[in-house]
Amino acid sequence: MFQSSYIELSTSALQHNIRFIESLIGPDVTFSSVIKGNAYGHGIEQFAPLAQSCGISHFSVFSADEALRLQQALPRPATIVIMGYIDTPELEWAVAHDIEFFVFEPDRLAHAARAAKKVGKPARIHLELETGMNRTGFDAGNLPTAEKILQENSDYLTLAGICTHYAGAESHLNHERVLNQQKLFREKVTQLKARGFVPEMLHTACSAAMVTFPETHMNLVRVGIMQYGLWPSPEIYEKYLRQHPEPSNPLRRIISWKSRIMSLKQVYKGEYIGYGASFQAPQDMVLAIVPVGYAWGYSRSLSNQGQVLIRGKRASVAGIVNMNVMMVDVTEIPDVKKDDEVVLLGHQYDESITVASFAELSTQLNYELLTRLPLNIPRFVVD
Ligand SMILES: *Cc1c(COP(=O)(O)O)cnc(C)c1O
After folding, report:
1. Among the three residues 194, 209, 243, which one is the final residue of a domain in this structure?
2. Cα dihedral angle (157, 158, 162, 163), rounded to 10 degrees?
3. Does the residue 20 lie in any domain?
4. Are residues 155 and 24 in the same domain?
């Protein structure tokens, strides 16, 4: 059955991005592929097996349900770390399946020890430290309790990692804060080690920190946005270019989003198009009706603004983006036909609609735009 739109993931682009990231971190640092937010909209079930086939064997997710989806999607075993939400009843499941998880409060640590005893093997935990993000993480107040629980349950709690997360490494505005976090993290780790808490690995870096602060790589980097071929911010790309004056972007977009023309319509000069009066035809026009709207993640703020590609040419959204359809102006596209491919994101011939342009017009962060692509758009892997 023809789906009103579909997403393609490029294998060669992913291979390229992985090679680039590996060149930044070197052979001794583990690359953990961050696939929270449905693999940043790319689809866990499609993206993760593809990443595994490209050599990735370590994944980070936000929640237990994502860990379960990932585990079911992967053809081969891999290390899975839950960085955020896991409910107490699920801890036993995680321990039983060797799924690792961040711990950031005494309660969860105690529950993890209990779950491990019940299952009969140690829980592999990552002790998250508060260093200035003020989201999750043990601070000076509750770290002693954590140490006590760790000590009392040393047979059932394996310290797989000690970690933290930076508060906005993608912007120079946060430079001081991030440097301070690094310093605090190192101090706390030194103290923990001195008291006998020696982790298997230390990890702190997201994409932006990986590019900006090589000293944050430690044993493992948690890379989300860059593996998908996008920079965490224009600033980080600029920074990278200043240090590596190369003519081209070393990252390649993996995702494309496509649809087809559902119908064509002739309208005449002076007529209004779609709901309301936001677009009045300045001349006789041909419109293509595209079966994609805000229900599919094509933001309503792209009304009269967005552009798509048809027959290698740009066509502009005319009128308001509806729930399930939008109209685009194809007056200047010769031979346009029903069923012609419509590229919403990605390239067609020499033209390209970038995530950045799309994100800017819809005033969304590239992260936000991607993760809001609905689950029910079918996703396919291509070469
Ligand atoms: C999302 C996330 C990352 C990855 O961030 P990117 O900017 O996409 O690389 C790393 N660590 C944690 C804790 C995260 O939540």
Report:
1. 243
2. -80
3. yes
4. yes
CA 332, 334, 340, 342 dihedral sign is: negative
Are residues 94 and 64 in contact, defined by beta-carbon separation less than 8 angstroms? yes
Ligand 1 pocket check for 233: Cβ under 6 Å? no
Question: Which positions are catalytic?
Answer: 36, 275
The DSSP-derived string for 197-241 is: ---SEEEEE-HHHHHH-GGG-TTEEEE-GGGGT--S-HHHHHHHH
Q: How far apart are CA 194 and CA 187, in angstroms?
A: 11
In the reported structure, the alpha carbon of residue 382 is separated from the centroid of ligand 1 by a whole-number distance in angstroms of 26
- Cβ–ligand 1 contact at 206 (below 6 Å): yes
- Could you say which of 184, 213, 243 is where a domain stops? 243
CATH number at residue 185: 3.20.20.10
Q: Is residue 217 in contact with ligand 1, taking CB distance under 6 Å?
A: no
Distance of CA 34 to the CA centre of its chain: 7
Same domain, yes or no: 288 and 336: yes
Q: How far apart are CA 249 and CA 222, in angstroms?
A: 21
Per-run averaged pLDDT (10 residues), the chain, 383 residues: 89 98 97 98 98 98 98 97 97 98 97 98 98 95 96 97 95 92 97 97 97 97 97 92 83 97 97 94 98 94 95 97 97 97 97 88 84 94 97
> Do 209 and 129 share a structural domain?
yes
Domain identity same for 77 and 132:
yes
Q: How many domains does the chain have?
A: 2
- Could you list the residue range(s) of the whole structural domain that residue 116 is in? 11-243
Q: What is the CA radius of gyration of the chain?
A: 24
Atom of ligand 1 minimally distant from the CA of 225: 8
